Batch of 2 targets.
Target 1
Amino acid sequence: MIFYILWNYLVGYVKIRVDGLSLEKFINLTVGKGIRLWGINRESYTSLTANMGMRDFHQLHSISHKIRCRIRIEEKRGLPFVMHRYRHRKMLVVGMIAFLVILYGFSCFIWSVDVQGVKKMDPQKIWTELDSLGVRPGVYKKNIDTMSVENSLIVTIPELSWASLEIKGSRAILRVREATQPPDFVDKETPSDIIASRDGIIQSMIVLDGQAVVEDGQTVRKGQLLVTGIIDHPDSTGIRYVHSMGQIKARTWYEDTAELSLKQPYRQRTGRSAQMKYIGWNRLKVPYHKEEIPFGDYDVEVREDGILITETYYEVKKIHWEQDRELAKEKLKEQLEEKIREKIPQGAKVIDKKFKYDMIEGEKLTALVYIEALEDIGQQRIIETQ
Amino acid sequence: MRRKRLEDAKSAVSEMLDLPREIMLNLPRITMIGNNQMIVENHKGVIEYTPERIRVNSSIGVIRIQGKDMKLKNIAADDIMITGGMKGIEFI
């Protein structure tokens, strides 16, 4: 049925009104000529409406003559009539063709490259490798041989165990799986010492091999020898070299400072935002998504993703720290904690944390943080033996 | 008498060979869906068409359909589709 409707629309049809006395005769004669009628509706004894193909209409002439009825076209429907209406608008056609050509042309190129599945390794390495293999935005899609790109990626980047390049429309998606690297080989033959990697107070020592030269509770400096691999025991003959092994837990300290200017108001985001989206390059921008910006004061964040530009407007509230010292302290504490988190190594356990604030009236607020942590400060140092 | 015998033979052959009877015997094929759609194939023209009564000619005589708000949805050389509320069908 839908096929019929579509076909009728494509070839064009007319809705006719027939006025006369013997309308059944009209139907029979029309059908007899091989013309299909549909949607016949008898509106009164002397009139009916029906649909028929556009091309068959001229054949009705003889019928209307024969049975003395009047046939009028009520409506013309379908594509041929629409086209007829626009026949003088050549640029419309040119525009349509141009649109299709541009659409097709643009879909022949890669517009964005996406790498998924990178966990530990530097993704930049994959990017540069992809770039040198010719997978980058702007290249012709057909020129990319996904198989060979996958193969050479795995060969040139040893960190990868599997790679799959998929071209989806104008996007190139690379999925990778990193190889599990073998653990660092511990060479137990090479004699070594253990030295301190930083200052601290020894909390506990578990020495598996070698001889401890420091004690629990002793303060050590960075680079100080903790466990020696040169064993000169009076019972044994001569000097023995061993590969020192052990866990040296020590208490260590970290400190950092941060400051907050009290003169400038702080611009805090309220959480409300609006977005404007554009297509284009730096100057030529065509907006395609607009939102009202009902904020009096806002920050703008511009993100460019190829030719797609997104401007995000964040509503901000000015906070004068002078009026709200507690909030200023809290803010500074937050900043400081974030700053010091980067300094503390991963294995360390924070035992104690102290903040100290200092206010310079009307100028700035400074804060100092002390962190006491427990961590393994042992570091291998190879003994040079002749 | 002779004609009757020919008809009988045709009927027997079509039954034996599983041929569609309506083609062999030139009968109208009437299909109804509920009481609101009816398709008459192999018809011989419309005799009367009003929303309340439709009469269709066929090889076995006139088929009269009574109903309400009936329309001829589609009509071509060998089939008619009638839609609307049908109340009765008679063969006269």
Target 2
Amino acid sequence: MLRILRTYGLALLLLTFVAFPLYWMTLTSLKPQTEVFRTPPTFLPATWTLEHYISLFQLTDFGLLFMNSLKVCLLSTVMALAVGILGAYALARFRVRGKEAYGRLVLLAYMFPGALLVIPLLLLFRELGLTNSHLGLSLAYLTFSLPFVMWVMRDFFASVPIDLEEAALIDGATRLGALWDVVLPQAVPGIIATGIFAFLFAWNEYLYALILISDESLRTLPPGMMRFVSSTDTNWGLIMAASTLATLPMALAFGLVQRYLVTGMGAGGVKG
Amino acid sequence: MAVRSGGPLAWLRDQHLGVILLLPSALTFLVLLVFPLSYGIYTSFLQRHVLDPEGVWVGLANYVWLFGNAEFWQSLAISTLWAGATVGLQIVLGTAVALILHQPFKGRSLVRGLVLFPYMMPVVSVILIWMLLYNALYGVLNYLLVQTGLIAAPIAWLSQPGSAFWSVVFVGVWKYFPFVVVIVLARLQVIPQDLYEAARIDGAGAIARFVDITLHQIKDVLLVVALLRTIYMFNNFEIAFLLTGGGPLRATMTLPILVYEQAFGLYEMGRGSAIAVVMFLILIGVMSVYFAFLRKESD
């Protein structure tokens, strides 16, 4: 009995630690501006309001920032999946000389410091006209999402039993035919989870977005949102509304595929 | 190998098709990683302004400048402390939380899901939330701490050198500890239960069971997670940069922020690259420990 009480007590403590900042974000976004600065603070809004969400779209460029982010992240995720799945399948199923070394290089690539790449990427992309370009930014995101996809999907393919592919090959399918008809349908949960992670990594990225895009009309969410903070007059209700909405894709992904997410995170983390 | 017939690519030997499938990714890595990396290393030997189309070869001058610069050594120390503190605390907190979430209780899967939120959230949202919580004038953190008598007067958490560093560390731990939870939880679930049964029959107490079985079983995973987290946190730019910009008085000036300051604040591409190259060499060192460990594991 004591043990159970202790478990619940600790779980509650944990919940407060994790959830209170999230609660405070949502709460602040729903308070009128005057109440945000009130002392003592209100732990439930005295007045509920959606004014910050409305002004976010009417008075700021949040909608544009959101759409720009969506575009860049979808583009980079699709590219990472298309290129990464082929490579991961080859690493899992083909005997290619030097593939172990290649697998290691992929992992090394995943851990590359962004600070190291951002300078040469800026200098090179400027030569190629890829700065101030959504394509350019999504290519920069491939530097971490492609290694991630390859690393996770290689393990995923390795865990799919090989018998079905062999049966398909004996029935006269080509290797590519077997990949398309037999392996990929089984890998859909893994692909979804991996894709969601690749998308969220890109969605959350800040440094490349800050450096590679300076045109206001092309700017994406993370650097765009930081502009809302001003040293003199910061509208925290508005900022918390933006923070809440920026978290929405993640919350949605969560609601849809939580169990896949945990699998994907485990696979991406430690497996070597 | 199965015998194949027909199909446009059937004539290819496995080896060839494998290479073809690897080609797109290899090309991408070549263009987006290998070439920029080489170019970054090359740039570290140049004096080059951001708008300068070529730059001037200065040999090791940027490195000489770097190693003679007190700010570099200070940042190296801050980065090391930042990585050490955030990783250490993440490991301790993450393991403790994993142990709690391993116990059965009502609503466990909900809590397990919610715990992942900080890790998956946009870093900018996290930063903005904590800026508001830490706010010296109307931050709820100060309000709660003053009310409960833990502090006498509100603290300007992010604008004093002493408190700023640990406030930034706290946010780093809050955001990234769930990663440790997931990995440790996965490992806890595959510890054979009969180990605990046997220990109980042998009369081992709760603490002895924890140390001899649980800790013994998860220690390899903890080591790997600690290495991966160290690499990640050492590289982390956003948390400190967005909360404090490296200040006050350079108290949170980690190496990535120093790179940023040189390259995009002072437009010294060469010096910025030299710092980044040194960071990279340090990380290669940590990575080789990781690979050595993996090799030992697979033997």
